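Lecture notes, unit on protein representations.

Consider one protein chain, 150 amino acids long.
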Amino acid sequence: MIDPFTDEYFMQQALRQAQLAYDQGEVPVGAVIVLEKRIIARAHNFTEKLHDVTAHAEMQAITSASEFIGAKYLKKCTLFVTLEPCSMCAGALAWSQIDRIVYGAKDEKRGAMLLSKNIFHPKTVVEGGLMANESLKLLQDFFAERRNKS
């Protein structure tokens, strides 16, 4: 039997969240958290709408997933996020003890991996580059549009 719930499927769902952010004037980063092949949290950036620099997609997803499972630790969960987490989000993800992080585009300026590969929880598996081109294009289009408006 073919499993339709692949990493690519879940990253596509994260990209849908990023598109929602784009449409709302937010930096287009989207995230989903998966437990046993089921999406338990969907989120995107809300920093502009909430006037809150901590309202990144990952932070919103962590809160939602924790509420869903009724626990602060996200063991056995995977985060799919369209952009490499920043150091703030990496710290929160480390505290959540999430099992796995899969990100799309690398963040060359603020990505957590610039600081240290040990910033995440020691048991967390981190994989980058899944659908990176699609994630990067959305970000590039967003910022190009912003530059053209000013």
